Amino acid sequence: MAVDDKQNNLNGGFYGPSIPPPTNTTLRGASGSSSCLCNFFCIIFKIILALVIIVGLLILILWLVYRPLKLKFHVTDAALTQFDLSDSNILKYNLAVNISARNPNKRVVVYYEKIEVNAYYAEQRFGSASLNGFYQGTKNTTVWSPVLHGQSLLVLNSPDALTYFDAQKSNGIYSISLKVLLGLKYEYGTFKSATMTPKVECYFNVPLSGYGSSYWVSFKETNCLLLST
Questions:
Q1: Which terminal Cβ of the chain has fewer Cβ within 10 Å, N or C?
Q2: What would be one Gene Ontology cellular-component term for the protein (predicted)?
Q3: What pLDDT is stored for residue 5 in this prediction?
């Protein structure tokens, strides 16, 4: 009987104390690193967001304080003393213009770094001139007086363009356009803006000096368009 009891005990299941599962130190370490990395990027994002908000508020405050007004440009006078187109499409020209540049702002100074005046006829550039940069104070009007002279290739391919030129030649009054390329900065107190590159476009009719019926025609002051880029 003792042998049978022992045999039964050996055949029965034996349940000892439970063994805890092994801890996965690798996963816990990876999870901790990921959490630290996430916190780092969150801090960087908050710093960048705060800087953007601060810069935006500064720009808004500057705008409210200075309230910059748009610059104004006019062609106040123009003199065309030569505008001859040869049979070989060579244009000889001599054009002098006065362009007034007005800074209407009370607190904003303008620094012109680049002033390039280009003259066009029939949408073709025939002459250009560059002017020296300068500082323009507040509530100031400055007159630019570029002179464009020389010769250039001017091709009028279409019959309409040739007819238009012949009609203007007969009248002694020509349709000229100026496109002024600018590089400028605005100064708001001690703050200076980045360089901006607006363009000024002026369209006007100018009589050829001393030519027939145009002798009695005077130039009319023309407003120009300021286009941002």
A1: N
A2: plasmodesma
A3: 54
- Sort residue 64 into left (φ over 0), alpha (ψ -120 to 50) or beta: alpha
Pairwise CA distance, residues 33 & 21, whole Å: 23
Spatial distance between the Cα atoms of 150 and 161, rounded to a whole number of angstroms:
22
- DSSP output for 69-111: PPPEEEEEEEEEEEEEE-TTSEEEEEEEEEEEEEE--SSEEEE
Amino acid letter, residue 37: L
pLDDT in tens, 171-219: 999 999 999 999 999 998 888 889 999 999 999 999 998 766 555 678 9
CA 25 to chain centroid: 57
End-to-end Cα separation, the chain, in angstroms: 108
Listed as own residue / partner, the contacts of 163-166 with beta carbons closer than 8 Å and 24 or more positions apart are 164/122, 165/85, 165/122
